Amino acid sequence: MHDQTAEALKGHAADYIEAHFEESEATHIVYRGERLEEVNRTCSSGGNVRALVKGGWGFVSFNNLDKLRDKVALAVEEAKLASREELKLSLREPVVDVVAQFHPHPSLTLRYAQGFDSGQALSPLPSRERRDSATVPLAAKKELLDEYNDIILSSPKIQSTRIAYRDVRRKVIFANSEGSYIEQGKPDLTLRLTAIARENNEVQQAGLSLGSNGDFSAIEGLHHQVRELARRAAALLSATQVKGGEYTVILDPVLAGVFVHEAFGHLSESDFVYQNEQLRNIMALGRRFGAKHLNIVDDATIPDLRGSYKYDDEGMPASRTYLIHGGVLVGRLHSRETAAKMGEKPTGNARAISYLFPPIVRMTNTFIEPGNSSFEEMLSEIKEGVYVKDWYGGTTSLEMFTFSAGEAYMIRQGKLAELLRPVVLSGNVFVTLGNIDAIGSDLKMNQGGGCGKGGQSPLPVSNGSPHIRVCSCLVGGQEKLKSKDKNAK
């Protein structure tokens, strides 16, 4: 394969050419209530060629390697039609490597265990024997999900469920005209469980999202959590509606991680910054966005997380990039193209969900570094506030955000009080970052869900944070949901 691709990429009138080839196997299982809606196992293969000529890109995708040189030539011709101005990609020494699955250098594992440079440790990954999802029979996967579905449906006041399971194993080959040739294995697994409760005309729901880099054991043994999920959905039926207004808010690691990913992380993707003059002015390096205790990082080198890899989809090595350090904007995420255009260092953040798409700038594992506060200390200093956990949904528009929490409680006189119906947090991300007045020491990474951008979804990512306290945030209540269709995602 190495010789075949090297020969096909030679001798074309292009500034740069790269090729991707992929084989994948995937399993999908979906339930809606008692009905098993989907169960399948699929295989696919294909590739693409991307060529650069005077700043213009050509892109061709295909399903077999026949006449590969002709496909390269077609991509070059497309690039010539799009050419506009000279563009020199950031320099990169050729790499030849085979990576069956991402296993970091021992020094990276040690740095992970020590909490990187912050002096605080990430919450350790559960101690369990890894089970490759590709080796687990389809019947065993269905049997486990049947158990979870039965637990939810047998719980009081539960009307329906929504369960979506997906695992995929990909082998990806990358080659370019500079002499690089890289083979990588990229497994992934996700599970979303939703319990939908109903009483009279009132409908509420609760969800649980999990994921791993292909380790099936990450979703086994969840029977207690599933029962609690159903109990929480039922409890929301009689929960109190929050009175809208400005509150001191504590976010749990899951919701804080979603906040930093959605509200801030996407603004750090340099293709957005480069193309939007307003955003370039806002995201000026050196600008202060928070107190000195605020550090935000994107790191693809952390072992055993869904956003981790050794090389990105341009053959660039994974890296750890500070976005905010000491409250100051110090970096952003780059592809080779955006790094060259903006005169900055590439960060290895060019990613594609499959061979059908070209790589674009994407996050990996994005998180707020831990601080020194305990949850109890944060709580004790609040006379009246709101504690929000987990996520339900949300939207962003440049620096403005709206997020729905999956679970919320009032805080009164330094203690957790009554359960609330789902609440919505909204505001300006930069004002909110500046309002973070305490950061916990309990950093945890959320492995559930996936990222969408540019029509490419779901991309495996992780996000996380310790508990954080925001001294002022606008909080409102959601209107109650009227039918089960509105609750089933």
Strand and helix map with partners:
Elements: H1 2-9, E1 16-32, E2 35-53, E3 56-62, H2 68-82, E4 96-99, H3 106-113, H4 138-153, E5 158-176, E6 181-199, E7 202-212, H5 223-235, E8 245-251, H6 253-264, H7 270-275, H8 277-282, E9 296-299, E10 320-325, E11 328-329, H9 336-342, E12 350-351, E13 360-361, E14 365-368, H10 375-380, E15 384-397, E16 400-412, E17 415-420, E18 423-428, H11 429-434, E19 436-439, E20 444-446, E21 451-453, E22 456-459, E23 462-465, E24 468-477, H12 484-487
Parallel strand pairs: 4-6, 8-15, 14-23
Antiparallel strand pairs: 1-2, 1-5, 2-3, 5-6, 6-7, 8-24, 9-10, 9-14, 10-11, 12-13, 15-16, 16-17, 16-18, 18-24, 19-24, 20-23, 21-22
Helix pairs in contact: 1-2, 4-5
Kindly describe this structure.
- The protein is of the alpha+beta class and 489 residues long.
- The protein has twelve helices and 24 strands.
- It is globular, with a radius of gyration of 23 Å.
At a glance:
With about 500 residues, the protein is an alpha+beta fold. A hairpin with a 2-residue loop joins strand 10 and strand 11.
Structural class: alpha+beta
Beta-strand content = 35-45%
How far apart, in Å, are the first and last alpha carbons?
Answer: 42 Å
How many beta strands in the DSSP annotation?
A: 24
Mean of residue pLDDT values: 91
Q: Catalogue the unreliable spans.
A: 102-126, 479-489
How would a crystallographer describe the biggest sheet?
7 strands, mixed
> Share of helix among residues?
10-25%
Molecular shape:
globular
Work out the helix count: 12
Q: What's the alpha carbon Rg, rounded to whole Å?
A: 23 Å
